[in-house]
Amino acid sequence: MLLCKKCIFARKVSAHFMEDSHKLDHSECQNRIRPVKEALAFLSGKWKLPIILSLWLGNKRFSEISKEVNGITDRMLSKELRDLEINGFVKRVIHDSYPVVVEYILTDYGKTLKPVIDALGEWGASYHSRPANGSKRASHPDTE
């Protein structure tokens, strides 16, 4: 990814990068990094990732997801599923049966998150296992 010299983000150091980096102004650079920020913001919520992981194991009814995602309230699960559905990651399927059965499935678009989450998991494992340079490493409250 090409970034301007102002940005504090890590850069790939190469002759090509050094030649072209001065050609980007800061607003162009910010436009390039915006999708990364938005993706991280979307996945950083407390519940979205556990819900997505639950659905990777197969189609689920609301009550099944609720049991698998420890600590989530029905109201919050409903809100998060609606948000995931609006963004195209999850599909709500109503089966024509009696009683009515509603299932949630991960869409093909939702399945595109797998390599992203796998890569973040690998990075997280290597980050967690590296020495902390003598100081305590910051942690997220949800991971303790």
TrEMBL record:
InterPro entries assigned to the protein according to its UniProt record, in alphabetical order: HTH_HxlR, WH-like_DNA-bd_sf, WH_DNA-bd_sf
User: GO MF annotations for this entry?
Assistant: DNA binding
Q: Which UniProt keywords apply?
A: DNA-binding, Transcription, Transcription regulation
- Extract the Pfam families matched here: HxlR
All residue ranges annotated as the HTH hxlR-type domain in the record = 29-132
Q: Report the coiled-coil segments.
A: none
Question: What name has this protein been given in UniProt?
Answer: Transcriptional regulator, HxlR family
